[in-house]
Amino acid sequence: MTSYQIVVCGSIVPDPLQTLEPITTPQGPALKNEMMLPAVLDPWAGHALYEAAHLAAKAPGSKVWLVALAPKAKLQQVMMSIAQKVPFELVAIDGPAGGFTEPHAVASALAEAIRAIPGLDPSRLLVFGGWESASRGAGATMQMVGEILGITDQFQGVDEIAAADDGSFRVLERVEGGQHQVSVCAGAPALFGWATGNLPEPPNNPQVGMANMRTAMPALAKAKPAPAAGDAAAFASVALPQQRRETRIVKDMGSEEIAREIVAWIAGEEVAP
Amino acid sequence: MSEPLGGSAAAGARAGEAAEAAAGVAGAGAGVAVDAAPEVGDVERQTLEADIVCVGFGPANAGFLTVLSRGLAESPSVESRVMPGMPPQIICYERADDTAFGVSGIATRARAIRETLPDLDPSQIPMAAPIARETVVYLLDPVGASRRPFAMRAADTALRALRRVDEHAFELPTIPPFLRKHGGLVLSMGQFMQWAGANVMGGGIAQIWPGMPVASSVFDGDRVTGVRLVDQGVDHGGRPDAAFMPGMDIRAALTVVGDGPVGPVGRALDERFGLPEGHHRREWAVGMKMVVELRDGSGLEPGAVLHTIGYPEREIFGFLYVLPGNLASLGIFVPSWFDSPVRTAYRYLQHWMLHPYLWRHLEGGALRSWGAKSLDESGRAGEPRLVGDGYVRIGEGSGSTNVLTGSGVDEAWATGAMLGDGVLELLRAGKPLTRENLERAYLSRRRASWVEKESREAEHARDGFQRGIVRGFLGMALAGMTRGRLGCRARARRTHERIPTLESYYKGRIAPEEIDAIRRDSASRGLPLHDALMDRAGWPAVPLDGKLLVSHQDALLVGGKVQAPAGYADHVAFLYPGLCEGCGTKICIEMCSGQAIAPGENGVPAFDREKCVHCGACLWNCAKPHPEDPERGTIAFRAGAGGLHSAEN
Question: Has this prediction a pTM greater than 0.95?
Answer without folding.
Answer: no
